[in-house]
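PROTEIN DESIGN WORKSHEET
SECTION A - STRUCTURE
LENGTH: 339
TOKENS:
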């Protein structure tokens, strides 16, 4: 058994993650190079357009992808254990026991043929060996109360009898039911919710992380959620990490042109009457072969021919983070150019 992780130590470390899918008989890369580290109590935001590889990266870390998908990594270490060396049974107990995932669609995350109570009991049988079967229902009601749901008399209800907001809270309770939980992966957990319920769910997640010292990786398209929730941010584009920064530096001193252009697209208030900025083009397809920088075709800060000829490495920037751009180290701050 691994030693307890100190607050200053990474509880989850991923290096060199690569994931490919099979498409028309060939392997196409969905995640080409991904690394991540997160400490207990820390919330790391994972942002980027659809097709950037965010959800695939989380599923790869958790071991949810099966052949013909192919997952490779230099390292996936959870609390001192390399997850690549686990047996299938150990992996099954790790998923939901030490690391759990919250999905963006609560309705399709539950089996419509089974009651909420029966689905919750299956999780407790696997991840709560400390409980007797006679104690399951009382524990389920306690866990549901912790996420704002009165479960009394509702354990025999089916998923369709709950609202989306209630189902999302129930899913969070299921994900956090293990007493050994260390890392929570949240894949756009508020996408299907209205604004009021979204705020409540985000506050619930933040409170759970603080109370239980959980590390969380939060996938979101909403940069206002990133600003409110996260300590550190990882920006992905076309399957690669293009910038890593603490949340303050990301908004005040973005180093990669893609990050700058994402921030530029946020509507300002009061509106000055000018046309809103829209990033041209789209994320390249998985099977598209690009020699140089994958963002070059959409970049407003193109340096020159080398952007099309050579892929930039992820290097330290002037703000203390990381950025994959040929301009990093050449100019003090890219934001000054694009302002």
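SECTION B - SEQUENCE
RESIDUE ASSIGNMENT:
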């Amino acid at each position: 058994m691994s030693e307890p992780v100190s607050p200053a130590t990474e509880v989850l470390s991923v290096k060199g993650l690569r994931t490919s899918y099979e498409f028309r008989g060939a392997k196409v890369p969905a995640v080409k190079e991904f690394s991540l580290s997160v400490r207990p109590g820390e919330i790391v935001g994972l942002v980027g357009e659809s097709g950037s590889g965010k959800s695939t990266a989380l599923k790869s870390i958790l071991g949810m992808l099966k052949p013909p998908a192919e997952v490779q990594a230099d390292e996936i270490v959870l609390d001192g254990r390399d997850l690549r060396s686990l047996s299938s049974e150990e992996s099954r107990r790790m998923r939901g026991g030490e690391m759990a995932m919250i999905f963006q669609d609560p309705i399709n995350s539950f089996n419509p043929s089974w009651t909420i109570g029966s689905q919750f009991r299956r999780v407790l049988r696997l991840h709560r060996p400390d409980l007797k079967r006679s104690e399951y229902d009382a524990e389920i009601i306690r866990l549901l109360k912790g996420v704002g749901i009165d479960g009394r008399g509702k354990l025999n209800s089916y998923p369709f009898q709950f609202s989306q907001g209630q189902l999302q809270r129930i899913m969070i309770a299921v994900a956090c039911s293990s007493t050994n939980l260390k890392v929570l992966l949240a894949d756009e957990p508020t996408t299907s919710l209205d604004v009021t319920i979204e705020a409540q769910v985000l506050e619930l997640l933040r409170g759970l992380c603080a109370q239980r010292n959980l590390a969380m990786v939060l996938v979101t398209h909403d940069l206002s959620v990133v600003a409110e929730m996260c300590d550190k941010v990882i920006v992905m584009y076309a399957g690669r990490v293009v910038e890593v920064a603490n949340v303050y530096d990301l908004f005040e001193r973005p180093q990669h042109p893609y990050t700058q252009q994402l921030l530029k697209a946020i509507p300002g208030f009061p509106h000055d009457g000018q046309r809103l900025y829209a990033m041209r083009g789209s994320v390249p397809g998985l099977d598209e072969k690009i020699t140089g920088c994958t963002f070059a075709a959409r970049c407003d800060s193109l340096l020159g021919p080398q952007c099309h000829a050579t892929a930039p490495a992820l290097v330290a920037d002037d703000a203390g983070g990381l950025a994959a751009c040929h301009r990093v180290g050449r100019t003090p701050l890219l934001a000054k150019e694009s302002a």
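SECTION C - NOTES
Residues 249-338 form one domain.
Residues 1-7, 332-339 have pLDDT under 50 and may be disordered.
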